[in-house]
Amino acid sequence: MTQAQPTQSLPDALRIAGRSYASRLLVGTGKYKDLEQTRRAVEASGAEIVTVAVRRTNLGQKPGEPNLLDVLPPDRYTILPNTAGCYSAEDALRTCRLARELLDDHRLVKLEVLGDAKTLFPDVTATLAAAEQLVKEGFEVMVYTSDDPIIAKRLEELGCVAVMPLAAPIGSGLGVQNRYNILSIIENARVPIIVDAGVGTASDAAIAMELGCDGVLMNTAIAEARDPVLMASAMKHAIIGGREAFRAGRMPRRRYASASSPLDGTVV
User: Looking at the DSSP assignment, which residues form a beta bridge with residue 52?
Assistant: First the structure.
C-alpha cells in the first residue's frame, strides 16, 4: 500500500521521519457518526496525517465491512496507526506489528500505552519499554506521553521521531493546562513536539502553537462539536494563526499602558 508522499520543498514545513507536511494539524478518525462525516471533517481540517485506532477500525482485516481507507485513501493521506486501548507494552507491540501487516510494511506509528481507564494517562514505564522495542524493529515511533520533560527527552533519545505530550487528559477539552512543562519540553527537543490530548476549541490549538509546538493532534474536539466539519475548519485556521504568531514573536507584556501613537515629536 502506497502512503501519501507530501511535497518535500514546502516553506515552514512540519518534518517527521524525513517527510514534509504543509499542515501542522493531525486529526483522529474516531467518534464520528459515520464514515461520510469523517471524510468531510478531515477534508475541512486540511490535515495530511490521520491517526487510526487499529484495534477499533476496519483497515481491511474485516472483509465486507466498511473500510476507513475507502474514504481516506493512503495515496492522499499519511495513515498513522495508533495503539489506542492498549494497557501493556506487549499489546502495543502486537498492535503495531498488525498495522505493519495490514498497511504493507508501513512503519510510521503512534504509540500510546495507557495506565488507567478512568484518566487515560500514559503508563510511562510501559511506554518507554514499548518505544525502545519498536525502534529496534525499525518502526518510526510518534509517542504519546506525559508532560514530564525528563521522560520526553528520554523518549527522544530512544529514537522516537516525534514526542506527543498531553496538554490535559484525553477527551477532556480542558485546553493547555501545563504551559510551563510543554515549554520546557519544546526548549530541550530536537524532534517535533506535538500536543496530543486536551484541546477543546480553536483557541486551545492556537495557544499550543504560540508556545512553539510543532503541531497539534486532536479528535474529540472536532468529532464531538455540534458541527464537526465547521470545527475542523476552525482548527485549521487556529493552527495556522498560532504558528504565524509564534514565528512573528509577540510583543512584550507590560504592566502599564503603552500608547499606540506616542506623543514624542508631535506638533502642539
Answer: 81
Give the list of residues 6+ apart from residue 156 with CB closer than 8 angstroms, or none.
Answer: 163, 189, 190, 191
239 vs 204: CA distance, rounded Å: 10
Cβ 38 vs Cβ 71: under 8 Å: yes
Whose CA is closest to 193, among 180, 212, 206, 171? 212
pLDDT of 10 above 80: no
The C-alpha cell 469523517 sits at: 38
* 3-state helix, strand and coil shares in percent for the chain, rounded to the nearest 5: 35, 15, 50
Q: Give 94: exposed, middle or buried? Use CB within 10 Å, 0-12, 13-18, 19+.
A: middle
Provide the CB-side half-sphere exposure for 171 (13 A, CA).
Answer: 10
CB-based burial, 61-85: b 16+ in 10 Å, e otherwise:
eeeeeebbbebbebeebbbbbbbbb
Task: Tell me the Cα Rg of the chain.
Answer: 19
Average pLDDT over residues 26-37: 95
Q: Give the span between the Cα atoms of 7 and 245, in whole angstroms.
A: 24
122-159 pLDDT tens trace: 999 999 999 999 999 999 999 999 999 999 999 999 99
Amino acid identity for residue 210 in this structure:
E
Coil, strand or helix: which one is 228?
helix
Q: How far is CA 230 from CA 120, 172, 188, 222, in A?
A: 27, 20, 35, 9
Q: If you average pLDDT over residues 177-202, what whole number do you get?
A: 96
Catalytic residue ranges: 110
Question: Computed from CA positions of residues 214, 91, 223, 74, in that sequence, does the dihedral angle turn out positive or negative?
Answer: positive
- Give the predicted TM-score (pTM) of the model: 0.91
Return d(Cα 119, Cα 48) in angstroms, integer: 29
